[in-house]
Amino acid sequence: MIKEIVTDEEILSKPCDAATAEDAAIAEDLVDTLLADDEAVCLAANQIGETKRIVAYLNEAGKPVVLFNPALVQKLRPYTAVEACLSREEASGVVRYEWIRVSYDALVDGKLVPRKKKMEGNAAQAVQHMIDHCEGILV
Question: Whole-prediction pTM value?
């Protein structure tokens, strides 16, 4: 189901709770909402009103990728980026990393399975932005 994008800073500034396999419907709504917005490249669950650690982003092929409970475990080559956000009116400057390693859970056959992924480029920047959302950091 396509949800409205949340702009309420009180909701967005709270750290999200760990996601479970029972939160699969939230992930589906997140993907539906992401695909329905031509300007969106990534979304976190709190941006659709759900305070769970679930994020979705579009890969290079334009396909949605969902990460449950993402966390940065390694980061290299910092740079300053100016990022826009669907939940905020103004863009802001933020430090990002060109190369990251992310731990996360993937939903496989109805269960969360731990995974790790190396990322760089636009996908890495998008996932860092989404992890900030999960932490209640407004960018």
Answer: 0.93
